[in-house]
Known about the structure:
- By secondary structure, the chain is an alpha/beta fold.
- Helices cover 36% and strands 14% of the residues.
- It has 13 helices and eleven strands.
- The strands form two sheets. It has a seven-stranded mixed β-sheet, sandwiched between helices.
- The radius of gyration is 22 Å and the shape is globular.
- The protein starts with a helix and ends with a helix.
- The model has no long low-confidence stretch (mean pLDDT 97).
- Bound molecules: pyridoxal-5'-phosphate.
- Pyridoxal-5'-phosphate binds next to loops.
Amino acid sequence: MAFSLDSILRENIKKAKPYSSARDEYKGTEGTFLDANENPYGSAIDKKVNRYPDPLQRDVKEALAKLKHVAPENIFLGNGSDEPIDLLIRATCQPAKDSILILPPTYGMYEVSAGINDVEIISVPLTRSFDLDPVAILAAVKPSTKIIFICSPNNPTGNLMSIDKVKTVLSSFNGIVVVDEAYIDFADFAGFVPLLNQYPNLVVLQTFSKAWGMAALRIGTAYASKEIVSVLNKIKPPYNINLLTQEAALEALQNNALKDEMVRKILVQRDWLRAELSKLPICLELYPSDANFILMRTPDGKKVYDYLVDHVVITRDRSKIILCEGCIRITVGTEEENKRLLEVLKKY
Ligand SMILES: Cc1ncc(COP(=O)(O)O)c(C=O)c1O
């Protein structure tokens, strides 16, 4: 089936003219800047942040493009990867008419963003082994369905989706397929970014919030065709990534080895934690993890969660979520944190 971006964009988005900021209209860095109503004297903090930042974050994209082997034009940067989730829904789904398709149990923001935009949510649960079922997905797609969200590695289950099944959905659906790879750095798989040229309807989400350790700075990435990236740029708030975050992202990209070293330590801890959790009497099932968290089934997830909170160890109670009955989700911590968790759980 041929994908046509034009045919899935909302009419108002096609016609929309983006806000033209002062920094869009004059791109030089030297001059007497009397164009953006900024404070010429400086800032009320000990940092030079009185000038608006680059609206298209060109330096960050150039560095990221080199690391990911894509063109800068294939990169959109958002205020966290949550921002492109919302922008993609707004660009394609007409409120009270169109739909998105999600695969529960999965990351909650697809549903939240669709709800805020008054967009119908079609749910096709994952299989018992937490994989996607392309036949069921394609059967559930409606003419109104604009986006399918696939989270891989999936939150909260932790596993990668079968690559061939994701490819089947990509080549059979004529809307956008978002593959959310927030946790890809913890998986033994290069992810879908190298396949961008093969699938014009593919959007890959990644983030600086997990492996890079920069959750507080709010920066996430959507990799997609130049056409899709242009639409996202057209509708985003003009200065969606602040200057300090852009500078920090550039610094982080010079420190790729440091990120890799942190990932390596987390993976060592993940193995240790799995081995130890599996020995506990309350561990009914421990799911394989390609991420920096582990899903564990217990006889009563809420009770275990509350017990841990009483001992000031905070996990996530996922026991009310479809297919996750009795489960808690445990983020892999430092060696000390994981030992503390085990010490408390052993006394349950
Ligand atoms: C699967 C998934 N996607 C996206 C996000 C959002 O990340 P960000 O901090 O980049 O907005 C999260 C955050 O937990 C997540 O689990």
